[in-house]
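Q: Here's a chain of 120 amino acids. Please give me its 3D structure as tokens.
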Amino acid sequence: MTKSHKDLDVWRAGIDLARDIYALTRSYPKEEQYGIVGQMRRSAVSISSNLAEGAARQGKKEFIQFLYVAVGSANELDTQIEISRAVGFGDAKKLSAAQDSLTRVIMLLRGLIRSLKADQ
């Protein structure tokens, strides 16, 4: 296992993604603060949070379970980005950049899961 969650590229990519989502959603309507803004921010924060919690667990099996939860949060965020596009929230370029970052995070998560499963 790794020494720390902070040693994982996917954890750093998740932190960067969360930062970008916070910046993106600042321009959303104020009445959405407790709607889609809150949902997007929680989903983005959940990705790296679950990586950190899973990495702190004793076994690979538990870590993999937390990685699957992180993938679930990433897919929630993907849906929320699509809804933002559909209803006209957010800057189109920033939404596309967030989508690209999210795609990278999902790929890294799946790669880490495959790697951990191969080592079991």
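Q: Can you summarize the key feature?
A: The CA atoms of residues 24 and 90 lie 6 Å apart.
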